[in-house]
Amino acid sequence: MATNQLLEIKNYGQSIWMDNLTRDIVQSGELKNLVENQGISGITSNPAIFEKAINGNAIYDADIEAGIRAGLPTYKIYESLVFKDIRDACDILHPVYDATHGLDGYVSIEVPPTIAHDTEATIKEARRYFQEIGKENLMIKIPGTEAGLPAVEQVISEGINVNVTLLFAVQSYVNTAWAYIRGLEKRLAEGNDINKISSVASFFLSRIDSNIDGKIDAKLKKGIDDIALEAKLKAVKGKVAIANAKIAYQEYKKIAQSERWQALAAKGANVQRLLWASTSTKDPNYSDVMYVDELIGPETVNTLPPVTIEACSDHCDVANRIETRVEEAYQLIDSLKDPDININIDTVMDELLTDGIEKFVKPFESLMNSLEDKIKLLSPV
User: Fold this and answer.
1) How far apart are CA 32 and CA 223, in angstroms?
2) Which of 87, 90, 180, 240 is the most buried (most CB within 10 A)?
3) Which uninterrupted H or E stretch holds 135?
4) Yes or no: is domain 5-378 CATH 1.10.455.10?
């Protein structure tokens, strides 16, 4: 029998979650099979995924019609559809949650992306989502924006599991980790239990390479006469995201060794794991599993879309690589400052965060519009 590489990865302390939640995979039994037989131990969702799932899919029509009969506005009908999918997925994954004592088995749902820059609105919606969905293995996705991190700190202090999303810069991850720690410290100071709270920090990958590769290609297209310069530019392509992630992992280790974290760990706190997100390879010239193979390591999560899950189960090259070639990673990031390359990594990360929020807002708004059209179609005349 062929080895399932997804199951092999678990032996190195990394959990594999899936980045795709639809009613089809819940009702067909596909999700249950992935959990029980393929080693999938969590699932994430976002507005883009739900837009594709709900738009043009008759599987949701009966519930939409029920919402119409109940006189619900479009947004509440949307929530009724999504919350049901999330609850059902939570039930399927709850045995994993129990078996891992709350390490895995989570289902993530994002607060509306339109409030990414509003701290109080994010806190309010995170509370409401957690209460209304009513599942202990639910994670609320909050963007790692300047406004998002105080919300992370507050809802963690209230015992709500958080998936901090849209992290690109290493410093953004560090800020996220300390927001989690402050939230736990606040909860502990208020005399509350901290050993049933979990969090992940979703560090995005392929979008970084797509952005930087585009900048490199633009330089190369202008024509490079110097062969050494051309080689220097090409050496950067497809390498920055993984290097950036390896540096983030080194920061994770420093934080895990800090006195403040150790004090919380002694009280039973769960570590906030780095989660590798945006892991489908965008460039066909690269390995379709490079964002898996190069970042396998302990106390991490990798969240994969279905196509990458299929590819990885077939031909991932499984080994603990998260701490290999770390010095090279630092050198590569530093090389971006070379006048011949001249790419400002901080500017790139800021661009990606802004663009990332927009990539969630647009499908969310599109989903609301298409759902409105479907409501009109299904409404009795």
Assistant:
1) 53
2) 180
3) none
4) no
State mean pLDDT over 241-249: 98
Helix (H) or strand (E) holding 63: helix 61-69
Answer whether residue 210 shows pLDDT above 50.
yes
- For the chain, give the longest Cα–Cα distance: 71
- pTM higher than the cut 0.90: yes
The length of the chain is: 381
**Three-state SS at 101:** coil
φ and ψ at 54, to 5 degrees?
-85, -35
pLDDT at 371 over 70: yes
For the segment 324-361, what is each residue's pLDDT rounded down to a tens digit?
999 999 999 999 999 989 999 999 999 999 999 998 89
The whole-number average pLDDT for the span 358-381 is 89
Residue 249 CA to residue 89 CA, distance in Å, equals: 29
Extents of the domains making up the chain:
5-378
User: 61-80: per-residue pLDDT in tens?
Assistant: 999 999 999 999 999 999 99
What type of residue sits at position 112? Answer: P
- CA–CA gap between residue 366 and residue 156 (Å, rounded): 31
∠334-214-252 over CA atoms, to 5°?
40
CA distance 293 to 9: 9
β-pairing, 300-304 with 138-143? unpaired
In the set 76, 84, 141, 254, the catalytic residue is 141
Q: Give the three-class secondary structure for 2.
A: coil
Say if residue 225's pLDDT is above 90.
Answer: no
Amino acid at 215: K
State the average pLDDT over residues 136-149: 96
How far is the CA of 37 from the CAs of 91, 92, 297, 318, 360, in angstroms?
17, 13, 22, 18, 31
**Is 186 part of the annotated catalytic residue set?**
no
Q: Report the distance separating Cα 108 and Cα 355, nearest Å.
A: 21
Helix 326-335 / helix 240-256 crossing angle, nearest 10 deg: 120
What phi-psi label fits residue 221: left (phi over 0), alpha (psi between -120 and 50 degrees) or beta? alpha
